Amino acid sequence: MQKIKNYIINSVDSQEARLEKQASLEEKMKEPEDVAVIEGFINMTDEDAEKFYQKYGFAMDLADLKFCQAYFRDTEKRDPTMTEMKMIDTYWSDHCRHTTFLTKLETIDIKWDLLQKIYEDYITSRKYVYEDRKKDICLMDVATIAAKELKKKGQLKDLDESEEINACSIKATIQVDGKPEEYLIMFKNETHNHPTEIEPFGGAATCLGGAIRDPLSGRVYVYQAMRVTGCGDPTVSIEKTLPNKLPQRKLTNEAARGYSSYGNQIGLATRTSNGNLSSRLCGKTFRNRSTSRCSTS
Fold first, then answer.
1. Rounded Cα–Cα distance for residues 51 and 226 (Å)
2. pTM (two decimals)
């Protein structure tokens, strides 16, 4: 029975309901306590810091925690509050600042010929785009180098550029009632890998939600979406679930339901949905949502 409960109940978003009859439906709220100061944080030894790190389950790694310790000790000259540390932990998470995508790649060992060729083309493109300028090699650069090369070659003349670089917008002249009108055609990409890993339904739902919300806030009509995902094999035995991870089947199925729920409720058509399975993605999900839309410029 406990194994069944562990599979069904994700403690991040759910809890087991009590079966006994409730005396009242009134929800009693406790008076919030004062924000706790982490006494002695700036003077913690390495051993104490690791114990503190394990106790509170930070998403940042231990090196990040030590960096915070040095900052509060040398710059702020005080112990931080728990709220401050949790805020930093959130904003340094993989979801908020694309930690994985922006990590500097120093040792690269490729065993797939096609991927090796792609990497070599990327290095050639980097040399053309950046010339003598120093720039870290990272996954984010791999993903954006093609557009940078096209722009440098003058082949993106219809690209609409502004301070907001969270989407791709191109200028287009469209015939409306027989008359030409200037429009922006926009493509918004959204990744929710980390949120979907820990809370599949909500993570996948709000991934599509973000791809819809952003253009709507810019007076854009959103008319279609594309779903590209990756995950481990959902047919593997639950006994093979990685420590501190959700079962692969739960990740896969709940994410699909979350995406469908949000898209169906708002009425957005998903013209393409592709899923890729790989043992390298076991315990994780790769989420990529794109939406297309038009707006008068």
1. 44
2. 0.71
